[in-house]
Write a structure and sequence with these properties.
The chain is built from 27 helices and 13 strands. By secondary structure, it is of the alpha/beta class. The chain has a seven-stranded parallel beta sheet with strand order 3-2-1-4-5-6-7. It has a six-stranded parallel beta sheet with strand order 10-9-8-11-12-13. Strand 1 (272-278), helix 15 (285-298) and strand 2 form a beta-alpha-beta unit. The longest helix has 22 residues, at 615-636. The N and C termini lie far apart (101 Å).
Length: 645
């Protein structure tokens, strides 16, 4: 009788369903270290099967092993080239590494395989936004919503795109939809708050920031956005808001993982090492007040200038950003660094003085100042109120902008620059001649407002309505980006009707190119400044174009900014001190056509020779102030040490 052969063991070529489910369960339980271990064990047994590679890649990503995760995901896709989810996952890793073009290709491939893949459309939108292709990103977000109607993040990001295109009403609808779908989604409250500010609805915006803070009272970025919004109304003068700013400073201090108390800079240097932290070394209004001064400081053999740039450049090359790199001895990008890493980098550069140029505005890095990376820290230029950070020793101001009686409004000590706290750089990219006063030809006065309408409060519209009552033939030319939105135009006309300004008394234009913006000054006789958020860049550019601005001086730095600029330009008589004074001055100047024409003919020459445009003079004053700060620190134990005792 023939003996039976023993049965051969069954050869498995793929994990069993039980093994795969066990791995998925571990992943869902967020036991990522165990997932890595079990995945690698399966890979040894089934190296050609994509499942274990796919799960391994996801687990490694959660464990922060990003390069290993990327390689695992690549292998997963190579083994399963038609797995839309695996390709999508690979796209996410590529985007994390800034490989945006490859990431885009992955998302599009995943969508080709699975046309209703909402997640892939959403992440494609994120990638296209980073690539600066925002119209395509808009389409991607709309597709994500089409296939996932409750995708609140897609609504939120679609709203951001629409807001940037100044379709403010449609953006508002997107944010409100996102909030309705997820009442705990903080980002949409903040975005809705900013959107309402853009529409001039500052009072309504505040409720959204408050709700965001109610959801997360430790979120420093929410505080910053809220504080910026407060400058558009008079809340910045309220004691309650000062206490909130102090709360921000305390939170920043608590979240700082280290705090430096020793610095290695030379106590008696021949050259001061000065650092500037900003997200605005690029085409931005801050650069217009900084560039000429930096050019002058660079000529100085007693200063070494360090830049810490907090802006990730994802769009086309910015010519101004490229120029700025040449103004500094050292250039450090810090946008991708944590606050601790950035503070350590700054500390290791052995600075004498470190400047914050952003305050609470976008791309700021205020929290890193709580680390006290330099012995003296100063805020200046990019913001209009206190930072709330007690580790910032000084704020640079001028006597018109901040009378010394206002020290209590700042946690920083006031340091006064002579003449002006701001020095404007005349436009380099758009030179044009000053044209004659248009009223000479028109026979009536045309007032201008080139401010963003988020600065145009109902209070100001009411004053402008009263001015037009005295000057029924006059017109106001509004030119701002919000008028790109026809829905917003309709709403704005209703606001005008409430203050008795009729449609035939106004001209509404949305801003086109920078060249068109300057040309528009040839159509106005004088500018009516906003309040309490007065003009800055627009005021300086109007003066350069021969157009004076009538401003109303208030009680805060931002509400006195117009007064500061006009004083530095030698136009003190264009500063009003109260509402009636503002109306009376507007009517007086409007009735003096000859005086306006004469002023226009000489105004550019006058302001270019004034402290407001005199960069060599400003740089000299600025440098002198730096040395005075350091001498006080060196010989009198400095304010910084006083605060630590």
């Amino acid at each position: 009788m023939r003996k039976k052969r023993p049965k051969k063991s069954k050869i498995f070529t793929e994990p069993s369903e039980r093994q795969m489910n066990a791995l998925i369960n571990l992943y869902n339980q967020q036991q990522y270290a165990k997932v890595e271990e079990k995945s690698r064990q399966l890979i040894v047994r089934f190296p050609k099967h994509p499942f274990a590679w796919k799960v391994l890649g996801a687990a490694l990503e959660w464990l922060g092993k990003l390069e290993e995760a990327l390689e695992a995901k690549k292998i997963s896709v190579s083994l399963a080239p038609n797995d839309a989810n695996a390709i999508y996952n690979l796209g996410n890793s590529l985007r994390d590494f800034g490989r945006l073009t490859e990431s885009e290709a992955c998302y599009k491939k995943a969508i080709e395989i699975k046309p209703d893949y909402a997640l892939s459309y959403y992440n494609l939108g994120l990638t296209l936004t980073e690539l600066g292709r925002k119209s395509e990103a808009e389409k991607a977000y709309r597709s994500a919503i089409q296939f996932a109607p409750k995708y609140f993040k897609a609504y939120n990001n679609l709203g951001r795109i629409l807001r940037e295109k100044y379709f403010l009403k449609d953006a508002e609808d997107c944010y409100r939809t996102a909030i309705n779908l997820n009442p705990d989604y903080i980002e949409s409250y903040c975005n809705l708050g900013e959107n309402l500010i853009q529409q001039g609805r500052s009072q309504e915006s505040e409720a959204n920031y408050r709700q965001a803070l109610a959801l997360n009272s430790q979120h420093l970025r929410i505080y910053s956005s809220w504080f910026v919004s407060l400058n558009y109304n008079n809340h910045s003068l309220n004691e309650y808001y000062h206490s909130e700013e102090k709360k921000f400073g305390q939170l920043a201090r608590e979240q700082a993982t280290i705090k430096f108390s020793q610095w290695h800079c030379e106590p008696h240097p021949e050259r001061l090492r000065i650092g500037f932290v900003s997200g605005d070394f690029r085409t931005h209004v801050v650069s217009y007040f900084l560039e000429n001064m930096l050019i002058e400081l660079k000529k100085n053999n007693k200063l070494d200038l360090f830049a810490y740039s907090n802006f990730l450049k994802t769009d086309k090359i910015d010519k101004i950003a490229e120029r700025f790199k040449g103004y500094f001895n050292v250039w450090h990008p810090i946008a991708s660094l944590t606050d601790e890493a950035a503070a350590q980098l700054i500390h290791d550069d052995n600075l004498h003085i470190l400047f914050d140029l952003s305050g609470h505005t976008a791309h700021n890095r205020l929290p890193l100042f709580a680390y006290k990376a330099a012995p003296i820290q100063v805020t200046w230029l990019g913001y209009w109120a206190t930072t709330g950070i007690e580790e910032i020793d000084y704020i640079l101001v001028d006597e018109v902008g901040v009378p010394n009686t206002k020290q209590a409004c700042f946690c920083e000590k006031l340091v006064y620059l002579p003449d002006t706290r701001l020095c404007f750089s005349a436009p380099k990219d758009c030179f044009m001649y000053v044209k004659p006063l248009p009223a000479l030809k028109n026979g009536f006065i045309t007032f201008g407002c080139f401010q963003s309408l988020k600065k145009v409060t109902d209070e100001m519209l009411s004053l402008w309505g009263k001015i037009l009552t005295h000057l029924p033939a006059a017109k106001i030319r509004f030119q701002c980006p919000q008028f790109h939105d026809k829905k917003f135009v309709t709403t704005f006309y209703k606001r005008l009707e409430q203050v008795n300004i009729t449609p035939n008394q106004v001209e509404l234009y949305h801003i086109g190119s920078r060249f068109d913006y300057f040309i528009a000054h040839s159509s106005v006789d004088m500018i009516l400044d906003t309040f309490p958020f007065t003009g800055g860049t627009t005021t300086c550019e109007a003066l350069w174009m021969g157009v004076p601005t009538l401003t109303l001086a208030g009680n805060s730095l931002i509400s006195r900014q117009g007064a500061s600029l006009l004083s530095a330009a030698g136009l003190e008589n264009w500063i009003a001190t109260h509402h009636e004074d503002y109306i009376n001055k507007a009517v007086y100047f409007a009735n003096d056509i000859e005086g306006l024409a004469n002023l226009r003919s000489k105004l550019r020459e006058q302001v270019l020779a004034s402290p407001l445009f005199d960069a060599p003079r400003f740089a000299k004053n600025f440098e002198k102030t730096l040395w005075q700060m350091w001498e006080k620190y060196d010989h009198k134990n400095s304010l910084a040490f006083d605060k630590q005792d």
